[in-house]
Amino acid sequence: xxxxxxxxxxxxxxxxxxxxxxxxxxxxxxxxxxxxxxxxxxxxxxxxxxxxxxxxxxxxxxxxxxxxxxxxxxxxxxxxxxxxxxxxxxxxxxxxxxxxxxxxxxxxxxxxxxxxxxxxxxxxxxx
Length: 127
Ligand code: AMP
Fold this sequence. Notes:
The protein is α+β, with helices and mostly antiparallel strands. The chain has three helices and five strands, in the order H-E-E-E-H-E-H-E. It has one domain: HIT-like (HIT family, subunit A). It has a five-stranded antiparallel beta sheet, covered by helices on one side. It is globular, with a radius of gyration of 15 Å. The chain starts with a helix and ends in a 22-residue tail after the last strand. Bound molecules: adenosine monophosphate.
């Protein structure tokens, strides 16, 4: 598992607009925001993808959601709502292989989150 740019942000080797930090996690503004408020919440210990989450990571992964809720409250988005997203691998749109929650807020979001896209195959089943 190789280092990513997020390791450099954790180590403060490159700048980031940090909005929250504690012993388990770091939250900073996304460099390419997709909403008026777009923050990434990452564990300090690197986990590459959702597929790599182990049972012992329960606390830190749950903690990311606690931080998301706290930030949404702090920045005034809790009541109107917001979206929390974690992408996984290529089809999920993941580009940085260090687990992160996207916290997006400040506009009314559409659903479903994809548009004008066809399924990869007709074999996808929802049981
Ligand atoms: P994902 O595509 O889900 O892996 O999300 C990675 C996110 O990291 C993207 O939204 C990028 O804009 C963001 N990103 C990449 N480099 C930086 C950086 N140096 N500082 C802040 N956000 C970054």
